[in-house]
Fold:
Amino acid sequence: MFQEIEFISEDAILRGRLYSHKVDSNPTIVMAHGTTGTITMVIDAYAEAFFVAGFDVLLYEHRNFGISDGAPRQEINPWIQARGYRDAVTYLRQSRPRCKIALWGESYTGGLVMIAGALIPDISAIVAQIPVCGIALPPGPIDDEAFAVMKDIFANGDVTGGPEHTVGPLPVVSADQMNAPSLLAPIQAFRWFVEHGGRHGSGWQNLATRVIPDTPVACSPFVSAPHLAMPVMFMVGRDDEMVHCNPDIQRAVFDKIKGSKEFVEVGGGHFGILWHPSPLFDQAIKVEIDFLSRTMLGE
Structure:
C-alpha cells in the first residue's frame, strides 16, 4: 500500500511513507502526528482510509522523532515542525508538480497546518483536527504586518531558542501528576499514549522537550488564519480536556479564517477520534473524506 520515503528538512533526513496510486497528478494529503506521536499510532489508519478513498498520502515523522533523524532527540519546536510540512510539500512537487496538495494535522499539528498552509504557496485544502490554538490569545502583534514578519521567520529566521524558552525534558504523560508531572497532564492523554505508543514497534518514547523560541511574532494560527485562502475543515472535540485546546481560542481562530471553512464538533473530547477502531474514528474519517472529496476531487 505504501513505499518508504525520505527527504531533507533543516539539515536532517525525515522519513515516512508515500501511499500512491501511481498517478503523478493524483491529489495528495501531507500528514504528520501531533505531540511526539509516531506514524503507527492511529495516524496510519487515517492515511490508509484516505488512500482507499482515492487520495495519495505522504505520511512522515517530525524531525527529532521516531524514524526521522535530527537532534536534540525528542525536541518539539513549532517553527521547525511547520518547516517540515514545507519540505514535505517541496519533496512532492519535485516529482508531481501538477498535483493538488492538502495539509492534515491533529492536535499540535492541527494548529501548525493553519500556519504552514498560509505560508506554503498553492495549498488546496487543510484539515485541522482537534487543533491546538493556545490557552489564550498570542502575545504581540497579530495584524498583516505581523504576518509578513511571520513569513520571514518561517523562511529564514533563527528559531533555535534557548534554555529560557525550553520546557523539559519531561515525560510526555504520567498517571501521577503529583509525584511525576508530565508535559500533557490529563489522564485521558496517559491512557491514549500508553495504549498506542506502548505497542511493539511504535518507536514512541515517553519523553519530550518543548522549545518556544522568542520570536517577534508568535508561531500561532491566530496570526495566520486571515491568510488561509483555501477551504479549511476545523474539527474540534466537544469538552476537549487539553488546556491548549481552549474552545474560545479555537473559535476565535476559526472566525478569523476569511476563506471557505467548515466547523465540525465531535464527541469524545480530545482523544475520542484518535482511538481506532471506534465509532468516533469512523465518524471523523467519513466527514474528512467527504470534505476532501468535495474540495480536491470535485465530487
Remarks:
- The longest helix spans residues 279-297.
- The domain at 2-136+220-294 is CATH 3.40.50.1820 (Rossmann fold).
- The two ends are 24 Å apart (CA to CA).
